[in-house]
Write a structure and sequence with these properties.
- Strand 6 (71-76) and strand 7 (82-84) form a beta hairpin.
- This protein is an alpha+beta fold.
- Helices cover 28% and strands 25% of the residues.
- The strands form 11 sheets. Strands 1-2-8-9-10-11-19-15-14-13-17 form an 11-stranded antiparallel β-sheet, covered by helices on one side. Strands 20-37-38-41-39-40 form a 6-stranded mixed β-sheet.
- Helix 8 runs antiparallel to helix 9.
- The structure holds alpha-D-glucopyranose.
- Alpha-D-glucopyranose binds next to helix 8.
Length: 799
Amino acid sequence: MRYGHFDDARGEYLIDRCDIPQSWTNYLGVRDLCTVISHNGGGYTFHKSAEHGRLTRFRPNAVPLDRPGHYVYVRDDESGEYWSLSWQPVGKDLDSARYTVRHGLSYTRFLCEYGGISAEQLLLIPVDDAVQLCAVTVKNDSGRERSLSVFNYLEWSFQHVEIDNQNFQMSLYASGADYADGVIEYDFFYEPWTYHFLAAAFEPDGFDCVRDRFIGPYRTERNPLAVERGACSASSERGGNHCGALHKKLVLAPGASRRLVFVLGVGSRREAGLGARERYAQPGAVDGAMGALKKYWDEKRSVLEINTPHRGMNTMINRWTLYQAETCVVWSRFASFIEVGGRTGLGFRDTAQDVMAVPHTNPAKTRQRLVELLSALTRTGYGLHLFDPADFEPRENPLPEVKLPTVKPAPSRDEIVHGLDDVCADDALWLVASVCEWVKETGRSDFFDHVVAYADGGQGTVYEHLKKILDFTAAQTGAHGVCKGLRADWNDCLNLGGGESAMVSFMHHWALEIFIEAAEFLGRSEDAAHYGALANRVRAACEKTLWDGAWYLRGFTGTGRKIGTRSAEEGRLFLNAQTWAVYSGVASAERRSLCMDAVDEHLFSPYGLHLLWPAFTKPDDEIGYVTRVYPGIKENASIFSHPNPWAVIAECLLGRGGRAMKFYDAILPYNQNDAIEIREAEPYSYCQFVHGRDHSAHGRARHPWLTGSAGWFYTAATKYILGIRPAFEGLVIDPCIPAEWDGFEVVRKWRDATYTIVVANPRHVEKGIETITLNGNPIEGPIPAQPPGSANTVEVVLG
Ligand code: GLC
């Protein structure tokens, strides 16, 4: 069953059935303001922080599933009939009303045809202006004059998610809203510096600021009293719940149309609202903002454009997976319909991985994130698992200290820096790779010498930070010579009771190899030799203790029990232990094929690779929380998406392009477009997990958008299947593709030059280079960076 399709020509996903059993969301905003919006207009807006900067309210995990939202109602003032421009909240009969939704990159269009009126609600946040625009176009297709009312409606939030959702005894009386000069201003009594506004870029005919006056008693957004009546009640009050509702009456001749623009933003009426009103009253202002948004994304998309025989891969890599990966970098993980702003800041491991994928499309933001992560590294060499970068930034013009009645006081520096008990052993290791990826992309090796303060005092260069990470991990070794997992490794739920984690040792080796490459490139040969010897020791220890005969162990518990061994009844085989044995370069030639064959044999399903097999069914706290999760869900033997691309990478390193593609395809959301009765979630977004075969809903995907799988699939597809990887000294070309492909083309911008890379596969191999030419000249090894501004042709023949 399908609910829409990819409209590649317009770069949109078009939903033509709005009665999807789940919300299919989109993210508006690329800098400071963000709206998470569902295909039914439900969702919320926040400024900078989904925890502290809420503009509009959301009732999470409720019935119906995505209320309230950013709604527009149209009322026929002759008949009194009304509808909304998104299918919900009014929910007109889909046999008489035609609804389509177009999710694009950072905008969504809701289109509705009903009763001879066609209308569009376009929502977007301009690139350089932290306001949300809601542009409503109403057209009379009916052949007779029509009198209509247009209402826009949103519900204000109490700004802090905590006081918005609990303990209302103070917060319910701490904000007020009023209307003047086309602008509703929402103020916070306890934070007299904070205002939000909703402005009309036209002369409204009415307004409501008090939510319950607009909606009416015992009603919902589905049937608001003001809309039913055709008039707002000019309500305004201090205290209570507030809304931004503006009403405009229109008389449209046959064929005539009218556009109304509503602007939502941060700031007072005087300082921000009136200016915004004027800006967007200018003809062309909204279209200009749309044009700039398109340019913003077109520029990013042009840095790496692929053209392969795989249509789904082209669509996903050229647009949706890149978009999802960028979204994770900009908004991290705490703003969705699943994580609804309960936390602020960055997860160390999540962000350190997210930035690895998009240094080419967002070098500035990824550098900012790297510095934030480096600032959250302790002198001991471990990262703070969850931190707010603002805690480490010098505060300019600090806001007045007002202790809000229900908000906890800010923690002191000592409280922010947690101890070893809360260290996840993998967190900081990712950063070694992310820093190096950024330098490989940009060529800015001076970044290694950039000085950054440590979270707990003192400072060091970026290079020194990386050494501390490698040294810390080396010091955290357990009885078998394998790295301790500490609180957990990548798998939050595999705690091992103080035991050892194969994944961390493999990651240590991986990070060491990457660092050694950097040290050699920088001419720091002593470091290269020192860490080279360490890498050899790590590899030897892993190979000695972690091989279980047909695959690698996942680790040891604190009491020395083997995890992921052939004799275990449950948790016999773990995906990450195999993929990382290969990806890290630890596994020998023979073992690497054997362990990845085991992955294919035991973990594969048509929806992707399971994280482990068989699922745990009995709680066992020595193994960890994973044993207390239902079989087939999340970390307990679901198809956890994030580790799947590591299997794609591992197969590419083995030269098995067919199998790499089999793994890529199984979980590719695009391929599930017509199976939504199974998948349920958006086909344009990777989800955190897909229910595994031990669950009755095998194949159902959950938790879209904010997952590390987007970045890693982007990496696996572009750097390993297509094999185009920046290195310190050149652009490596090393594809590993399905044998049946005749070839592919990639246009890659790298360090200010453009490379059109044409790969031919006349002998239908999966891997191996016969010849490479650069601008007609044969070349060996990586392509050296070409002069800035140059356009270059690279011809590759596989064989
Ligand atoms: C969630 C967490 C991530 C973790 C993963 C596996 O996605 O955000 O940090 O690695 O679960 O436990």
